[in-house]
């Protein structure tokens, strides 16, 4: 989710759920250590619970980055061993590390030595021509022996040669049963699943077999899926569910604060485009947030105008 789940996206998604764990976009260890920490790692208290996802293959650097992340208040440190992008491969981290489970284990062990918060790993079921039965077992055994608190498995192979990052999200077939088998073989370890999950009903089906479910692009493109998470997954009452009016009010106030600090409205609204997916007026909502929000001097008024379009469309349809 590089360039997607930034602090503005997480602030937006947090309005829908108090409990779901949110993840940062992947941050390279070197950037965490040497970069502008407020810009790269900063987050609002209201985003909690939130996990920092790191990329890298140098145990010492990852340990330093994990120490920094914990000190900044992140509640989990996650090592990405699943991203197949070219720029990630060129840095010898991401999905190519599936080929060197010993390196991943050394990284986990180094992070565990310095961090009291959970250290977790996100991986694929294998890469390229690997036998997924062997590759996933080897990686899981290595990271759990090193002390990893959880393993999140994207239930697809990653093809490092021949497929683009976008194609790697769709073309390799999903193999949920492989992840289920891994869980059966490791009943005492937390194993979560990721990849192609589109609805909460699907998530509940997976939870019959594994310990957790991670949703990424489905939530990004249709944030409304998050509205039922707290009630259905965490047992909150209907009275605890946020109203759409309250969500819009919060994001308008947040946007104006960001703009007053020198930011642009589009930094925020680009994450809100999919909010009314499939609803009356959704096309006009998308148009306004994709055009008017990009104009110089745009303020939260754009969000409110777009929301009025939705309210009017819903009223007209009901009539």
UniProtKB/TrEMBL annotation:
<dbReference type="InterPro" id="IPR001269">
    <property type="entry name" value="DUS_fam"/>
</dbReference>
<dbReference type="GO" id="GO:0050660">
    <property type="term" value="F:flavin adenine dinucleotide binding"/>
</dbReference>
<keyword id="KW-0285">Flavoprotein</keyword>
<dbReference type="InterPro" id="IPR018517">
    <property type="entry name" value="tRNA_hU_synthase_CS"/>
</dbReference>
<feature type="site" description="Interacts with tRNA">
    <location>
        <position position="169"/>
    </location>
</feature>
<protein>
    <recommendedName>
        <fullName>tRNA-dihydrouridine(20/20a) synthase</fullName>
        <ecNumber>1.3.1.91</ecNumber>
    </recommendedName>
</protein>
<comment type="similarity">
    <text>Belongs to the Dus family. DusA subfamily.</text>
</comment>
<dbReference type="GO" id="GO:0102266">
    <property type="term" value="F:tRNA-dihydrouridine20a synthase activity"/>
</dbReference>
<feature type="active site" description="Proton donor">
    <location>
        <position position="83"/>
    </location>
</feature>
<keyword id="KW-0547">Nucleotide-binding</keyword>
<feature type="binding site">
    <location>
        <position position="122"/>
    </location>
    <ligand>
        <name>FMN</name>
    </ligand>
</feature>
<feature type="domain" description="DUS-like FMN-binding">
    <location>
        <begin position="1"/>
        <end position="302"/>
    </location>
</feature>
<dbReference type="GO" id="GO:0000049">
    <property type="term" value="F:tRNA binding"/>
</dbReference>
<keyword id="KW-0288">FMN</keyword>
<feature type="binding site">
    <location>
        <position position="53"/>
    </location>
    <ligand>
        <name>FMN</name>
    </ligand>
</feature>
<keyword id="KW-0694">RNA-binding</keyword>
<keyword id="KW-0560">Oxidoreductase</keyword>
<feature type="site" description="Interacts with tRNA; defines subfamily-specific binding signature">
    <location>
        <position position="283"/>
    </location>
</feature>
<dbReference type="GO" id="GO:0102264">
    <property type="term" value="F:tRNA-dihydrouridine20 synthase activity"/>
</dbReference>
<feature type="binding site">
    <location>
        <position position="154"/>
    </location>
    <ligand>
        <name>FMN</name>
    </ligand>
</feature>
<dbReference type="GO" id="GO:0010181">
    <property type="term" value="F:FMN binding"/>
</dbReference>
<comment type="similarity">
    <text>Belongs to the dus family.</text>
</comment>
<dbReference type="InterPro" id="IPR004653">
    <property type="entry name" value="DusA"/>
</dbReference>
<dbReference type="InterPro" id="IPR013785">
    <property type="entry name" value="Aldolase_TIM"/>
</dbReference>
<feature type="binding site">
    <location>
        <begin position="194"/>
        <end position="196"/>
    </location>
    <ligand>
        <name>FMN</name>
    </ligand>
</feature>
<feature type="site" description="Interacts with tRNA; defines subfamily-specific binding signature">
    <location>
        <position position="166"/>
    </location>
</feature>
<dbReference type="InterPro" id="IPR035587">
    <property type="entry name" value="DUS-like_FMN-bd"/>
</dbReference>
<keyword id="KW-0521">NADP</keyword>
<keyword id="KW-0819">tRNA processing</keyword>
<keyword id="KW-0820">tRNA-binding</keyword>
<feature type="binding site">
    <location>
        <begin position="216"/>
        <end position="217"/>
    </location>
    <ligand>
        <name>FMN</name>
    </ligand>
</feature>
<feature type="site" description="Interacts with tRNA; defines subfamily-specific binding signature">
    <location>
        <position position="286"/>
    </location>
</feature>
<comment type="function">
    <text>Catalyzes the synthesis of 5,6-dihydrouridine (D), a modified base found in the D-loop of most tRNAs, via the reduction of the C5-C6 double bond in target uridines. Specifically modifies U20 and U20a in tRNAs.</text>
</comment>
<feature type="site" description="Interacts with tRNA">
    <location>
        <position position="80"/>
    </location>
</feature>
<dbReference type="Pfam" id="PF01207">
    <property type="entry name" value="Dus"/>
</dbReference>
């Amino acid at each position: 989710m590089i360039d997607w789940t930034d602090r503005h996206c997480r602030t937006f998604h947090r309005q829908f759920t108090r409990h779901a764990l949110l993840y940062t976009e992947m941050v390279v260890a070197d950037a965490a250590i040497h970069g502008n920490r407020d810009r790269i790692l900063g987050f609002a208290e209201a985003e909690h619970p939130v996990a920092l996802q790191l990329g890298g293959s140098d145990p010492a650097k990852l340990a330093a980055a994990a120490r920094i992340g914990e000190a900044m208040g992140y509640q989990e440190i996650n090592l990405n061993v699943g991203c197949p992008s070219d720029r990630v491969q060129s840095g010898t981290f991401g999905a190519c590390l599936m080929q060197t489970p010993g390196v991943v284990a050394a990284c986990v062990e180094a992070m565990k030595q310095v961090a009291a918060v959970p250290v977790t790993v996100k991986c694929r079921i294998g890469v390229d021509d690997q036998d997924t039965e062997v590759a996933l077992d080897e990686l899981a055994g290595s990271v759990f022996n090193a002390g990893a608190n959880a393993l999140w498995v994207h239930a697809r192979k990653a093809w490092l040669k021949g497929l683009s990052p976008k194609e790697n999200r769709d073309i390799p077939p999903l193999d949920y049963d492989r992840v289920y088998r891994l869980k059966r073989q490791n009943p005492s370890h937390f194993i979560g699943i990721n990849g192609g999950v589109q609805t909460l009903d699907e998530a509940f089906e997976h939870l019959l077999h594994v310990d957790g479910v991670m949703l990424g692009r489905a939530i990004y493109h249709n944030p409304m899926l998050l509205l039922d998470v707290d009630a259905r997954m965490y047992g909150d009452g209907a009275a605890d569910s946020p109203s759409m009016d309250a969500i819009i009010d919060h994001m308008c106030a947040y946007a104006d604060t960001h703009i007053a600090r020198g930011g642009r409205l589009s930094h925020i609204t680009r994450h809100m485009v999919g909010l009314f997916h499939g609803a009356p007026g959704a096309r006009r909502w998308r148009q306004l947030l994709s055009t008017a929000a990009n104009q110089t001097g745009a303020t939260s008024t754009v969000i409110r105008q777009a929301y009025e379009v939705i309210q009017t469309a819903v009223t007209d349809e009901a009539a």
